Amino acid sequence: MNYLLLGLCLVLIGCGEQAPQPPSVKPEALKSQLETLDQAKQIDSLLQNAADAQQQKINAQTGQ
């Protein structure tokens, strides 16, 4: 009987809690992060293009 009562109490306590709300994000902080991400993507593209061009030069010089 005691175990049943203890189990019921634990279930009721566990079901009664609400998940904490995530902190709100300021729009200007999000905008800044998105701009930085876009800049990083542009740099990545630039570096990839340079690496591809370098590989083509190497292939042309070695006859591949």
Short description:
The chain is 80% helix and 0% strand. It is mostly helical and 64 residues long.
Structure description:
This protein has 64 residues and is mostly helical. Helix content is 80%, strand content 0%. It is built from 2 helices and no strands. The protein has helices at 2-16, 27-62. It is elongated and about 85 Å long. The model has no long low-confidence stretch (mean pLDDT 84).
The total beta strand count reads 0
Average pLDDT, all residues? 84
Q: Give the low-confidence spans.
A: none
Gap from first CA to last CA:
82 Å
Shape: elongated
- Beta-strand percent range: under 5%
How many H/I helices? 2
The secondary-structure element order is HH
Largest sheet: none
- From the alpha-carbon coordinates, what is the Rg to the nearest angstrom? 29 Å
Secondary structure class reads mainly alpha
Helix content: over 70%
Record keyword descriptors for this entry.
64 residues, mainly alpha, elongated
What order do the helices and strands come in, and which of them pair?
Blueprint: H1 2-16, H2 27-62
